[in-house]
Amino acid sequence: MMGPGITRTTDGLRVRDLTVTFRADGRDVPAVRGLDLDVRPGKVLALVGESGSGKSASVLGMLGLLPPGTRTTGTAMVNGVDLLSLSSAKLRRRLGKDVAIVFQDPMTSLNPVHTVGQQVAEALLVHDQGLSSRQARARAGELLARVGIPAAVRRLDDYPHQFSGGMRQRVMIAIALANSPSVLVADEPTTALDVTVQAQILELLTDLCREQQTGLVLVTHDLGVVAGVADDVAVMYAGRIVERGTVDELFYRNSHPYTQGLLAAVPRIDLADYEPEPIPGTSRSAAGVDVGCSFAPRCSWAAETCLTDDPPLQDLRPGHGVACLRAETVAAAQERKSR
Amino acid sequence: MIEVSNLVKTYPVNHRKELTAVGGVSFSIREGETLALVGESGSGKSTVGRCLLRLIEPTSGDVRYRGKSITGLSRRQLRPLRQELQIVFQDPYSAIDPRMTIEAFLAEPMQVHGWARPDIAVRVTELLVTVDLGPELAGRYPHELSGGQRQRVVIARALALRPRLLVLDEPVAALDVSIQAGIMRLLSRLQRDQGLSYLFIAHDLAVVRQLSHRVAVMHRGLIVETGAAKDVYTFPRHPYTRALLSAIPMPDPRLERQRKRIVLSGDPPDPADRIEGCAFRSRCWKSEEDCSKEEPTLTAYDTPTLVACHHPETEPAGIGAESRS
To answer: Most buried among A151, A313, B113, B246, using CB within 10 Å?
Structure first.
């Protein structure tokens, strides 16, 4: 990690036309269909969706982390390099240095038979052959202190099982940010943690990323988390982005019926008589989509054309894109309602 | 209707140490009422739910159903009561035997209790309709159903023997948010229509807000605050309740920016460690010397909730329960 005051020149992450196709039972099963994403340096982009929306497949795909047999096409540019064009050996050298990832479950992400100090030091040594093991250990201690582990240097020789879930996730963040990557992907990083610990970890993650100008892709299903930490938001449904924009545009001027449905379904801690609204029907993955809008079967706004025509993701306003044939009508209704 | 007094459950860790999962918990649930039992992982909330149905044998304490103690009953004596007390677990994927049709899964409890075959057939259809599923689902297998549909099937089975109380152990925690709302509505309607009582176990105070009449907050095996839902949500007095409420993010960026969130420092203490005094004190911003000496017990102050704290908060909570002190 860089010290404060150091800035970096980077354009963040630029993903274009990403598709991910799995192979199952001899058939092609699409998971992501033509995804464009821009992650700005030092900003938080929340990638929101429910199970099966393709949000995890998207981020794993753009980092080349999907198993063999999966077909990934498109481009994912970081620091002038397209990650998807690299051989696996070259990609490995980029991972951790240009882009890093933190997963949901800190229990299985750490190696149980190595000390935490060894694992953080290893992350440093992989990308810096000039570092001595003593230097790496010292840096590991600094990194653990940086992510808020009390008595960090003393804990270098402890094993993962001696840490709590929240502390393990801190270790994972230290490893991920060890080489000051341009982009960090965090896939549901707090979902496995208790709610009081979740707040601490999110704060740590976003503070560190802002400080060192790392662009953060936060994959989450929790719209409360999004409202609290995101700068930009992209909502996914059935393998596509259906709406994207700044966090305020998405929460206050949303124009896709799915985004609206998702927001209306969230229970509220601050409203006594608020009854969350379910979205009718069953959510579908990209696999079940042939023609038309994938949300149309559950959509109260759906018209005839929605069942036959593909809605392109178009800017309704500068920087606010919506993939809905009826976006303008939906937006007008939303304006009236909020007035 | 059900009354729990001084329920304790301990587990041996090794020959010297003992883990207290539940350290003396008392509450009651009335007819047609929902008590939300809320806490983080390891707080003992699920253990309480299981002890209530004697799926786990409590170490000590008493559970009375309609005035009659059920803790001393033999398995056989317990059997008629099993019809009236049922449980719904979190994960609808592992709850249903994948080789069973939905019909067979729903019929099983009625077969065990000796129902006649025609009665069972009628009841299966009735149950599917009650949980808003089409009767044509009877012949399907669980893998053909979505998560939300499965949880409806699990709820239908819990209703098969016409219970009076359901223990709902995080029934929507594994479901997508757009599906959760539908299940919560269903539970609310079932309660209204059938006068059911619920013990709703949850880690998320937002999810249970609309359904709960009363709330009990658990921390490390003890209830630290309890009262009517509106009081617990708007004027929580225990610092831990405030921290829990404050930690829940709200889907509103402007409100989120205004909030002064209470961020607890440190981790929850290890459940196997013995702590003198208040178990929350290591993470509490209000703790003083007396907190390490004497364990606080549930006490009525001049506000409506009961709270186990030597230094309870004195002002109502702001948005999302931020402390104003």
So the answer is: B246
